[in-house]
């Protein structure tokens, strides 16, 4: 995804250039589809979410909505520290 991805440090990165002018929200889900947590409104154009928020290493899914409409549904990988 160009909006939500794993950064070089292994943390989740949210990069939405027009986040200040539109209303974006993000649902993060575990691999089984159950809800992990939600960001009700993205208020910054660049955010980093520490990987400790994702409980363990593995694939996590997300749904990015723009003004209440689904913009992207995708996944990203969180890895453990070596």
Helices, strands, pairings?
Elements (H helix, E strand, L loop, with lengths): L3 E3 L5 E4 L8 E6 L5 E5 L6 E4 L8 E9 L2 E10 L4
Antiparallel strand pairs: 1-2, 2-5, 3-4, 3-6, 6-7
Query: Considering DSSP H and I runs of 4 or more, what fraction of the residues is helical?
Result: under 10%
Distance between the termini: 25 Å
Biggest beta sheet summary: 4 strands, antiparallel
Gross morphology is globular
The total count of strands amounts to 7
| Number of helical elements | 0
Strand order of the largest sheet: 4-3-6-7
Which segments are poorly predicted (pLDDT under 50) over 5 or more consecutive residues? none
Mean pLDDT: 94
H and E order? EEEEEEE
Rg over alpha carbons:
12 Å
Supply the helix-strand structural class. Answer: mainly beta
Description:
It is built from no helices and seven strands. With 82 residues, it is mainly beta. A hairpin with a 5-residue loop joins strand 1 and strand 2 (12-15). The N and C termini lie far apart (25 Å). The mean pLDDT is 94.
From the structure above, extract its key features.
three-stranded antiparallel sheet; 82 residues; 7 strands; mainly beta; four-stranded antiparallel sheet
Summarize the structure.
By secondary structure, the chain is mainly β. Helix content is 0%, strand content 50%.
